[in-house]
């Protein structure tokens, strides 16, 4: 296998609400993640005294980050994607002044990464926002939240401008259509018009953060983050192809606005056809012109699209409400495994935007079981990642500018979808179960050594 470029960044990605724990420590406020004990699609449960959730401790990265970062360095990471918990900086979201203890924590985290020559990539809002902004202000449905987010973004840009040069605004911003509470702080039964108005406010806020980043850290790069939801037509019927085009545009729309600086015509038609009126001011339009420097995205699976309502009705009954591809295998969680789809997606995004791309999430969730001696022989994970990275190398040969790859998540963490620890992604095993039992001890899986070799060889150890 031909080596990856020398400048290619290798590493992993985690999110504050899935690894940190310390959920009320050092002045942190309650986030939307804290009131979703069963994951991003679960019901809201207001915290009462004595309530405990798996994410309250998670894997205790808040206290154990030096040891975990040392393990990442042992693998040879040159990049770690993390997120800042917004509620550590502004506990309720609407304060005038930030919480110094929260800023100090991330100072220490970034210093630890620098000690190991690991470049931080920092997401401003990763599937959480202050619960106070939802309760007291109506979430992103309220235009006022744009101001609160810009204050937060400017605060962290100013504080960490000498330590962080790679930033992302919102994690998987297109997920708001499927999980409105997680994405924009709106109730799950909100109507489309309300969700799209909230999304508009978030897109404006993202653009204002890009503008602020360019002003405050001129040598920084700031990107967006999309859930790469590539869909194929189930058949070559023209109606299936057209339906697939429309389905892909539902998520590409976010990239179009963030990369091109305005709403695309197909989305304006969608709003007209669905009687959705977006309150969009001239200042909003001007703000949107601040476009991202690069595109980052997650990639886990692909699906199929049909114009046949009978086929669609059957698909809505499966775990992912998605038409499965009859030519692909699936993981334990029903996620179809499609390495070639990653090459297709990389080429598609490059052709569409001509901006550098960064794969910031890709991985396999599985029920890892340690052997008698404690070893986790996760050959299935090695196979999955190997096959995907081979396709990344192919895309680079195709001429696609790929900046790096941070797999999800390099250490076992609490899954976003259902808040489970049994769905493991890591190269590093964490001794904790879904009930919170375990020592939290870390141990290296077989894939740890495999990924170390991949990084050391710049990908030339990958097997076709």
Automatic annotation (TrEMBL):
Single GO term (MF): 6-phospho-beta-glucosidase activity
Keyword Hydrolase in record: yes
Catalytic residues, chain numbering: 361
Keyword tags: Glycosidase, Hydrolase
Domain of life: Bacteria
Enzyme class: hydrolase
EC number: 3.2.1.86
InterPro entries, per database record: GH, GH_1_N_CS, Glyco_hydro_1, Glyco_hydro_1_AS
Keyword Hydrolase among UniProt keywords: yes
SUPFAM superfamilies: (Trans)glycosidases
Family classification: Belongs to the glycosyl hydrolase 1 family.
Name of the protein described by the UniProt record: 6-phospho-beta-glucosidase
């Amino acid at each position: 296998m031909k080596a990856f470029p020398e400048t290619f960044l290798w590493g992993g990605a985690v999110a504050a609400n899935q690894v940190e724990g310390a959920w009320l420590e050092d002045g942190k406020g309650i986030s939307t993640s804290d009131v979703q004990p069963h994951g991003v699609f679960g019901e809201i449960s207001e915290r009462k005294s004595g309530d405990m959730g798996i994410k309250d401790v998670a894997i205790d990265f808040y206290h154990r980050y030096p040891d975990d970062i040392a393990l990442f360095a042992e693998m040879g990471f040159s990049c770690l994607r993390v997120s800042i918990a917004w509620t550590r900086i502004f506990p309720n979201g609407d304060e005038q002044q930030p919480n110094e203890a929260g800023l100090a924590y991330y100072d220490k985290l970034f210093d630890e990464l620098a000690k190991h020559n690991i470049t931080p990539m920092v997401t401003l809002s990763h599937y959480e926002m202050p619960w106070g902004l939802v309760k007291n202000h109506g979430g992103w449905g309220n235009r006022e939240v744009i101001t609160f987010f810009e204050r937060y973004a400017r605060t962290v840009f100013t504080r960490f401008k000498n330590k962080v040069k790679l930033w992302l605004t919102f994690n998987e911003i297109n997920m708001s259509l499927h999980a409105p509470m997680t994405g924009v702080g709106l109730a799950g039964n909100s109507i489309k018009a309300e969700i799209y108005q909230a999304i508009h406010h978030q897109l404006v806020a993202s653009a204002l953060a890009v503008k602020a980043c360019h002003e405050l850290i001129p040598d920084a790069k700031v990107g967006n983050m999309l859930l790469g939801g590539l869909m194929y037509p189930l058949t070559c019927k023209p109606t299936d192809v057209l339906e697939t085009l429309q389905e892909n545009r539902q998520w590409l729309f976010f990239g179009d606005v963030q990369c091109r600086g305005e709403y695309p015509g197909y989305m304006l038609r969608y709003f007209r056809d669905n009687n959705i009126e977006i309150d969009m001011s001239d200042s909003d339009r001007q703000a949107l012109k601040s476009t991202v420097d690069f595109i980052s995205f997650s990639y886990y699976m692909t699906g199929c699209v049909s114009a046949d309502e009978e086929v669609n009705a059957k698909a809505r009954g499966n775990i992912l409400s998605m038409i499965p591809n009859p030519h692909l295998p699936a993981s334990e969680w029903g996620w179809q495994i499609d390495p070639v789809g990653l090459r297709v997606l990389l080429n598609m995004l490059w052709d569409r935007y001509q901006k550098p791309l960064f794969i910031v999430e890709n991985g396999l969730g599985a029920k890892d079981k340690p052997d008698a001696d404690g070893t986790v022989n996760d050959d299935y994970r090695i196979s999955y990642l190997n096959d995907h990275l081979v396709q990344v190398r192919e895309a680079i040969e195709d001429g696609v500018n790929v900046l790096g790859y941070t797999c999800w998540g390099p250490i076992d963490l609490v899954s976003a979808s259902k808040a489970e620890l049994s769905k493991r992604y890591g190269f590093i095993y964490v001794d904790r179960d879904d009930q919170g039992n375990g020592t939290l001890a870390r141990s290296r899986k077989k894939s740890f050594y495999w990924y170390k070799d991949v990084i050391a060889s710049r990908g030339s150890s990958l097997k076709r």
